[in-house]
Amino acid sequence: MTKKVSEAKKVTKARLRAHYKEVVSPALMTKFGYKSVMQIPRITKITVNMGVGDAVNDKKLIDAAIKDMEAITGQKAVATKSRKSIAGFKVREGWPIGCKVTLRGNRMYEMLDRLISIAIPRIRDFRGLNPRAFDGRGNYSMGLQEQIVFPEVEYDKVDKVRGLDITITTTAKSDEEGRALLAAFSFPFKEIR
């Protein structure tokens, strides 16, 4: 009986986490000439955000967005609330206007794996990701116009097609290091002309 319990507690390693340790980390060490392994950039978290502006008129749209977000990420989503009232948008302070999830550890690597290998190839008219979408500190942000590119979302049960923002936070000191890190994970960047 104790053998079954110990086998159940074993955590499976994500495929990209092993790829980072075996391939990406040594390649970045030689490319940038780091003296310590702690200098090698790594991904710390992935934040997925979905804004639901129509929730001002219908509060049930937030529940559908949260359900889609939980199916995509495999983690409970948090409803984001407005910080202040804006009369032009008919929004009051404290009203739910979106949802977000912050992923770390194995779930983060699994989400990155599904994003690179499944979701990005399913984007319509895809010509590559913008290589200039870094923030100056090595963090990358991208937007998807449809949540249905993820196979976890059941197309028949989607009430409305919504976009989502994905931010990949790294420990890179510059955009060049962050770009090299994501390129080593086979991120499909456009060629810079």
Compute the number of strand runs: 5
Strand order of the largest sheet: 2-3-1-5-4
The biggest beta sheet reads: 5 strands, antiparallel
| Envelope shape | elongated
Spell out the helices and strands N to C: HHEHEEHEEH
| Helical residues, percent | 25-40%
Give the count of helical stretches: 5
**End-to-end gap:** 62 Å
Query: Structural class of the helix and strand makeup?
Result: alpha+beta
List segments where confidence is low: pLDDT < 50 over at least 5 consecutive residues: 5-10
Beta-strand percent range:
15-25%
Rg on CA atoms, Å: 19 Å
What is the residue-averaged pLDDT?
Answer: 84
Overview in brief:
This protein is an alpha+beta fold.
Key features?
193 residues, alpha+beta, five-stranded antiparallel β-sheet, 17% strand, elongated
Topology:
Layout (H helix, E strand, L loop, with lengths): L1 H8 L5 H18 L10 E9 L8 H14 L4 E4 L14 E8 L1 H15 L20 E5 L19 E7 L4 H10 L9
Antiparallel strand pairs: 1-3, 1-5, 2-3, 4-5
Description:
- This protein is of the alpha+beta class and 193 residues long.
- 34% of the residues lie in helices and 17% in strands.
- The chain is built from five helices and five strands.
- The chain has helices spanning 2-9, 15-32, 60-73, 105-119, 175-184, and strands at 43-51, 78-81, 96-103, 140-144, 164-170.
- It has a five-stranded antiparallel sheet with strand order 2-3-1-5-4.
- Helix 2 crosses helix 5 (175-184).
- The protein is elongated and about 55 Å long.
